[in-house]
Amino acid sequence: MSDHHDQGDKKKPTPQPNEATELLPATSKFINLLFKHYWKEILSCVVTLIGASLLFLWHNYNHRFDPLNTNLIQINKRLDQFDLWLNGRYPSNGLIAEFSGSTQRDIRTDYGEELSLLSDSAHGGSSLVWYERILHDPTKGLNSDGFLRIHYHLNPKNDATVVPYVGIFAYFANPPKMFDVSSFKDIQVIARIDHTNVSACEYSFHLLDLIAASYHDYRWAECQLYLPIGSGYSTNRIRLEDLKTPRPFPPTPVDLTHVFGFAIQILAADNKESEGYLDIDDIRFLP
């Protein structure tokens, strides 16, 4: 009995505070504050790291025999895509399309978007257009990269009541998304033309922005491309601030913080029949 009574009277030892238990509340509070004020940045980093890891594994599985340098280029491009989606800023390299690739069927912008066709058939016209990707420039040899060739036949029925035009357009992302290109100053288009008849055409680049879209009349900000016949590739570099919307009133500014695509248009200058092709080698924003 006495032994049992002695054991019952013993007091349990009181836990002594230590550095670990004292730091727990402070650490928890710090983490809560960190997530409260910087959760977007943390989420962006986590998503980017996970995505980059998955893309690295996927790319290495599908391109096991590619040189390491090629893998790194592809990874950097994908990381640019994540930045494009998460932050709304267009990638710093400014590249829209250079139409390089390993097959003739691989006809996309630099960020994987397909091209769509424009024609005057929406207004009763009869103009024809189609495009293809040429693997190598015959004037540059087999080591050259590819380019886009747009074939057109404007107003084959000689209809004087329709303004003949054709073209291509593409979104910067799928589904369409607004991007900020205000950090760039110029747009550059490298292209050349050839005609099978002498009827003149006008060539133009169009930037699709939110303000112009709100008018629902497809009058996008544009700039003319100067492409002499038979002179080879011409480099057109145009200030973004010089893009003009063909709307007489009211004057429409271009919203460079909300753009979502581009278009190339071929217009019959005198409304007569015209046939030929337009080659596009490179389209990009420049700082």
Low-confidence stretches: 63-68
| Tally of separate domains | 2
Question: What's the CATH architecture of the largest domain?
Answer: Sandwich
Radius of gyration: 29 Å
Number of helices: 4
Give me the count of strands. 11
Shape: elongated
Structural class: alpha+beta
CATH class of the largest domain: Mainly Beta
CATH topology of the largest domain: Jelly Rolls
State mean pLDDT (0 to 100 scale): 77
Percentage beta strand: 25-35%
CATH superfamily of the largest domain: Galactose-binding domain-like
Q: What profile does the largest beta sheet have?
A: 6 strands, antiparallel
Descriptive account of the structure:
This protein has 2 domains: 20-87, no CATH class; 95-286, Jelly Rolls (Sandwich), CATH 2.60.120.260. Mean pLDDT is 77; it is low at 63-68. The protein has helices at residues 2-8, 19-62, 68-87, 210-213, and strands spanning 95-97, 116-119, 128-134, 147-154, 165-171, 186-195, 201-209, 221-225, 234-239, 259-268, 274-286. The protein is of the alpha+beta class.
Provide a short characterization of the protein structure.
The chain has 287 residues and is α+β, with helices and mostly antiparallel strands.
Layout of helices and strands:
Elements: H1 2-8, H2 19-62, H3 68-87, E1 95-97, E2 116-119, E3 128-134, E4 147-154, E5 165-171, E6 186-195, E7 201-209, H4 210-213, E8 221-225, E9 234-239, E10 259-268, E11 274-286
Antiparallel strand pairs: 1-11, 2-5, 3-4, 4-11, 5-10, 6-9, 6-11, 7-8, 7-10
Helix pairs in contact: 2-3
